[in-house]
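User: structure tokens for this one?
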Amino acid sequence: MLIDVNAYLGHWPFRKLRHNTASALLRLMDKKGIDQAWVSSASAVLYKNPQAANEDLGAETRKHRDRLVPFAVLNPTYADWEYDLDQCATEFDCKGIRLYPDYHNYKLTDSSCHELVAAATERKLLVSIPLRATDARQRHWLISIEDMRAADIVPLIRRFPDARFVLLNGLGYTGCDLGKPGVDLPANYWIEISRLSAVLQAEMRMLLDNVGKSRLVFGTGMPFKYPDPSLVKLEVLEATKSEIEAIRWKNAHALLPA
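Assistant:
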């Protein structure tokens, strides 16, 4: 089994995406042997009102909930986000939220962000945080947003020990408390592998050794990226069968409510 925790549907205004509809993404998943993908709306990242894109996501995934698990993109500075969260959880059956603080003009330390994380946690929703949306080399000249640093997420993880955070599109974890051994942090966060190195700097192996096999999850970033590099990482990673299976699907499967 293989679960991808980092995938998208919808459009990106500065670049044409392929495989960005439910049917097209499912065909790609079948081709690459991916059984399930956690998807949010790429469109929502740059919508002033992301809920309009969440509505599209809910409709697009409705007939494929066994394979496409919807995650809502919410902006805690936008009016009536509480109603949007309720609709996403109850009507669209979203299993988590995704936060884009830099794109939506707030900080992870803001009270509005904390209110959203607290509300999502109360509903037992996962909180996923992409450290980047697109590679800086591919960004349009109208977008000048820097990648989030892994260390920037540490205070939020400490503040909400009962929340469950899934960190996407990131690297550099071993250089901060998130990836160091013996650090007094809640075991409430999971790290997706799409930007981690399996050989050269070997950050995947270091994370397995430092924080354990239960903390890494498979992801690709498709359709922004092709899934093949993440698949190859599992092939070349120096790891036991048990560690590989944990990354491939067991850790992600355990995060979703029955």
